[in-house]
Amino acid sequence: VSSASLFFSLLSLSLSLSLFLGIPLPFPFQQRGKQVQEMIIGLDNLVFNLFEAFYMTREKTLPENIIFFRDGVSEGQFKHVLGKELLAIREACRMAGRKVGKEYRPSITLVVVQKRHHTRIFAANPADRVGKSENIPAGTVVDHSITHPFENEFFLCSHAGIQGTSKPAKYYVLHDDAEFSADQLQCLVYNLCHTYARCPRSVSIPSPVYYAHLAAFRARSYVERYLDMNPHNINIPKMAEALEIDTQYRRQLFYA
Fold this sequence. Notes:
alpha+beta, 9 strands, globular
């Protein structure tokens, strides 16, 4: 949802599984030459708002495990994600603990999802090839040989290739308090690819990431008229007002 010609982009977080609460807002991103770096500012407050929504709709309980899917970052930005955003999530947990009056330290698993790569996977056995394009079957995982020898990463082709060559998503597990086994996390990611409301089949990335994209695109349509090439002329109060969502729709997938 961002481009090098804009000085502001839009972020939307979505809380996965049974509660999707989009929170779109404008945030500044860093631009070095032609490279755009999307960094989340104020993540602690955003996650805290999600905790509040979860707490009020789940019989006043907080999640025991948090799985944070991060999209839009390159390998060179992993250090920032670990050094800034992971700490912001932990700060949000402390804020939630103070709010409910008890210590709150859930396990946090941070996974980066990437689609911008040039890796393609093919089945060596002709019997395993699917369709006219002879793609690999949906659910194929590769976590060795072509992955990092020490880091926790894997490729997952979660969708069936209907036309052309299937492109797997690449997943980097930057942090994992829950100590998931490789099979557990890969199965969880694959299962989340089956919960996208717009498609009766599995999709290429987990549905929370898709929903975050949809919420951000919808938010951009609300504020596009307030965007300007000059960052000093952007009307932040008007943008914030345009992004106010009626309370009856805030916990609905109206943007899907």
